[in-house]
Design brief:
This protein is α/β, with parallel strands linked by helices. It folds into two domains: 151 residues, HAD superfamily/HAD-like (Rossmann fold), CATH 3.40.50; 75 residues. 42% of the residues lie in helices and 14% in strands. It has nine helices and eight strands. The strands form two sheets. A six-stranded parallel sheet has the order 5-4-1-6-7-8, sandwiched between helices. Helix 8 links the parallel strand 7 and strand 8. It is globular. The protein starts with 8 loop residues before the first strand and ends with a helix. The model has no long low-confidence stretch (mean pLDDT 93). Bound molecules: magnesium ion (MG).
């Protein structure tokens, strides 16, 4: 495939606290954990924001023995399917609600029209769960690939996974130095830096503005509502 001009840059979005927020989903996580591992977790007892789901499970199971002995890849896959099903059912029944954060639809529409950008996902959610969440708010059509908690418990590895998947899907090599991560926690920033990527943080999740500023992102925004400002932040023109 011949591409004229510079290759498009990959814009990688986190999900929770960046694109959307939810009500009621923590309980579904705890219920599914009990169903699969035989131990009831309490998501409210830790600060899960920015952690991968396998990392969250490990933290909640720390020192406790699940009835299955250990958390194997097969069990994680079982958890992924069970959680995705439970979340989808809870969305259908109204027990869980997802909503997009300010400016998100307009921004994704705008960016996805540009020839010089492709959009991807980097999230600690397992892949099936990410699909349910994005589908619940009709955002699943914007992204060309992603890196998920089901790919690795180590978030810092996920931007590389996302870029590889996008490169395969598009037959274009997406370079980390031209990619940009957009997230809502210092974990998103650390994952971006692990790949030498630019990072824009937004204060629409559970982390306070001051905590995010202290982490040292390239740009910190209150939200994604000002499309021109977000674009400048992505392009490094602010
Ligand atoms: Mg997040």
């Amino acid at each position: 495939m011949t591409v004229s001009g510079p290759a498009p840059r990959a814009i990688l979005f986190d999900i929770d606290g960046t694109l959307l927020r939810s009500r009621g989903s923590a309980r579904v996580f705890d219920d599914t954990m009990e169903q699969v591992f035989g131990i009831r977790g309490d998501l409210g007892s830790i600060r899960p924001d920015g952690m991968t789901d396998p990392h969250i499970l490990a933290a909640l199971l720390d020192g406790r023995t699940p009835r299955v002995g250990s958390v194997t890849p097969r069990l994680l896959a079982t958890f992924e399917v069970a959680l995705a099903r439970a979340l989808a059912a809870a969305v259908a029944s109204g027990a869980v609600t997802f909503w997009t954060l300010p400016g998100v639809e307009g921004l994704l529409t705008e960016l996805s029209r540009r020839q010089d950008m492709r959009l991807g996902i980097v999230t600690g959610n397992m892949r099936a769960t990410a699909r349910v969440k994005l589908g619940a708010v009709a955002l699943d059509g914007y992204f060309r690939g992603g890196g998920y908690g089901s790919d690795s418990p180590v978030r810092d590895q996920l931007p590389g996974v996302a870029l590889r998947r996008m490169s395969q899907a598009e037959e274009i090599v997406f370079e980390p130095r031209h990619a940009v991560m957009i997230g809502d926690t210092p974990h998103d920033l650390a994952a971006a830096r692990a790949h030498g990527m630019r990072c824009v943080l937004v204060a629409t999740g559970q982390y306070e503005h001051g905590e995010l500023a202290a982490a040292g992102p390239d740009v910190l925004l209150e939200d994604l509502s000002d499309g021109a400002r977000v674009l400048d932040a992505i392009l490094g023109e602010e």
